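Handout, section B. The chain below has 201 residues.
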Amino acid sequence: MHFDAAIPQQNTHSFSAIIMAGGRSSRMGQDKALLQLHGKTMLQHTCDVAIAAGCHKVLISRNAAGYIQDEVANRGPLAGIAAALKQANSEFCLVLPVDMPSLQPADLRPLLNGESCYFKNFTLPCVLPNTLQVQDYLAQVVHDPFLHGRALSIEQLLQWLQARSLTTANPAHFANTNDFATWQCVSKTIPTQRTQQVRHE
């Protein structure tokens, strides 16, 4: 499943967003993607933030019918990224988790500069080049039989890419909400935001 922006974005490079919404949410006790924030699910909220930041398409990695599913099970987030990159038609992909309710479009725009990058102390969100070299690398590690079900990390991918580390002025906006108590505390502090709605194609 993917969403397209209602209007074209003015950017030298083309960016798609990959929303990582396939986690088990075991500590949360319910699906993080379906939590409600100001009348929208976290999945919709994250899509809207990505589009408002400057992405022209949103692809959703989620192991459920109608979404982009992992080709190999139990390989962690890299399997989701590998599957989504194949469906992206942009030069770069902004990879976002679905559990950062404080994240704002302005927080993401420094990443949309046409290079592999991430913010210091946070592996997500990050920007990856959508090249055959990257797709081949991910295919190799995801399908490697010697991993025996082990998951490689996004941090390892960023190291392989020699991605640039940036500094953010708002590190608190990148906090994950992994349990319901944290979610309740953080979500109450977030004002209603008017972000551009995206349409489903």
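Note. The longest helix spans residues 42-53. Compare this with the example in section A.
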